[in-house]
Specification:
globular
């Protein structure tokens, strides 16, 4: 694992979370179970730190529900773009105590400082949360996973905790939100096969573990209600696109039909 000095924008002690982080986690643990039907399954599967969390990605606030579900210590670190989240002095002061560290991705890959930060956090007993889909799936099937999480696990020799989130893409007060944690995926030590083969094999195991945490083979599925809503919405949108005279004629026909039936 990488050692050396931390990026100055990274909290350097994952086993001693700062006060803002502790207050945030305490607030989430207080409010989330009261505002939602919050269910956490599989905490017994968590490996001892350090480890990586690999989760599906539904919304921008996924991280908050993972913080509410996982142990308070060690600190869970997440990534954010340097050019948007750390682009103001007040942001650079406010954000790091909450475990967020800067990255400067280029062509879908992390910069050298971001990669070094991941290894440094793990070397100090921390936990790093990664959304290997890269983009929001918004409740649809799990997207193909990017290879970074497998590279980190192989190089650092740490397990991956697979997490399946459901309910956040249709969040509403007192709605069901599930955080399902699967058994850890432990990287095999490199042997005769190349690192690339090991990464692909490990990534496939992570994907299958996330799908098993969903309790199904195909990832999150849309609810019956959402399918019905789509079925109703499509013809309504088609009617709205009709010319004005034709819409008026259809409404008159509907009223005449109602009067005939009454």
């Amino acid at each position: 694992m990488a050692g050396g000095a931390f990026d100055p924008l990274v909290h350097p002690a994952p086993l001693a979370p700062p006060l803002p982080y502790r207050l945030l986690v305490a607030l989430l643990r207080l409010l989330v179970p009261r505002l939602f039907r919050f269910r956490v399954v599989g905490l017994e599967h968590l490996p001892p730190p350090p480890y990586l969390i690999a989760s599906n990605h539904l919304t921008w606030f996924d991280t908050l529900f993972i913080l509410a579900a996982f142990p308070r210590v060690p600190m869970i670190y997440t990534m954010a773009r340097r050019d948007t989240v750390f682009n103001r002095a007040w942001k650079r002061w406010l954000v790091p105590p909450f475990g967020v560290f800067p990255i400067s991705p280029a062509r879908g890959e992390l910069d050298q400082r971001g990669v070094a930060t991941v290894y440094q956090v793990l070397s100090r007993g921390g936990v790093v949360l990664i959304f290997p889909e890269g983009r929001y799936s918004r409740g649809r099937a799990l997207r193909p996973l990017r290879k970074g999480v497998a590279h980190f696990a192989l190089e650092a020799g740490v397990p991956i905790s697979p997490v399946a989130l459901t309910g956040l893409d249709r969040l509403r007060p007192f709605g069901v939100v599930d955080v399902s944690i699967g058994p850890p995926v432990r990287p095999d030590p490199p042997a005769w096969w190349t690192v690339q083969v090991g990464v692909e094999q490990l990534l496939d195991r992570v994907r299958r573990s996330i799908l098993r945490a969903f309790g199904q083979d195909g990832g999150p599925r849309r609810t019956r209600r959402s399918r019905l809503g789509s079925a109703v919405a499509r013809p309504l949108r088609a009617v709205r696109r009709l010319p004005g005279r034709l819409r008026t004629r259809l409404r008159r026909t509907g009223r005449n039909t109602e009067s005939d039936n009454s």
